Amino acid sequence: MPIGFAELDRAVVTIRTGGLVVFPTETVYGLGANALDPVAVARIFAAKSRPSTNPLIVHVTDVSQVPPLVESWPSLAEKLAMKFWPGPLTIVVRKSALVPDIVTGGGPTVALRCPNHPVALALLKASGVPIAAPSANRSGELSPTTAEHVRNSLAGKYDVLLNGGPCLGGLESTVVEITPTGVRLLRPGLIGVHALEEVVGKIEHGPTSSSTDAPAHSPGMLSRHYAPRTALECAANPSDANFLVHLYETAGLKVARYECTDSPSEAAAKLYADLHTLDAGAFDRIIATLPPDTEEWRTVRDRLMRASAEE
Ligand code: AMP
Ligand code: MG
After folding, report:
1. Same domain for 192 and 101
2. pTM to 2 decimals?
3. Residues 83, 122: one domain?
């Protein structure tokens, strides 16, 4: 969907004057503000009802915008950015004093990403400032992959919405932290671990940040996140799913089944849109069959399991 000059201009003025702009990326829609303006960034937290300890991703035009934002830019970060930017990889490094504390949840690190979407890049370039943006949904809920999802979740809470059509990736970026010993995976995402390991060698796993003074939680690490409003339960295989569906239907509940398509990238692109649709269907419960426990399915499984976690 093409964006007109006048619309882009309005979005740029909004960013520069401390307002909120919803924009498409290749992962999901983002709710953006000038990352260097703490008052503007505070509006993001208010619009989403997001806990203030949950840090935001800062979006940049390319690596040239990075140096003022960081204390140092390790060579592993540079290697990853060279290979995967623009693209769905978020790199966490130590922040500079220029980045307001509200952006990083009070912690010493900042998450950086260059999105691979013409509208996001045009907005970043024309605004001339880095843009802090989480997904454009209320905190804890499903991320939006269309402009309509955003309107349903955040109506009246933003100044401009740039409608770029459906997001092609459909799931969030992979988040890695550069630690003193290497690269740690903080959140699985559209770029797989094998692809990262080809560039930087073995990836460390595990939720804990190397820096003990980091914020206690980042949202992608919460067990319940990315969740539809309808209760969702995961089944390990189709026969377990049949059993659960039968159980709930016998109890009089209206049950929807969810199965992934055979291709991991197609399943990723459709997952949130499908769950948004099921949410609108007045079901009492969604029973989702988990795809196989393999590397290529890691991110889709992660999101389904978090969608089903207890609050
Ligand atoms: P979202 O709100 O869906 O855009 O998610 C933002 C993601 O950025 C979270 O899931 C975090 O994992 C990640 N993030 C942002 N800043 C940091 C940081 N300083 N340290 C660790 N993770 C971060
Ligand atoms: Mg989110």
Report:
1. yes
2. 0.91
3. yes
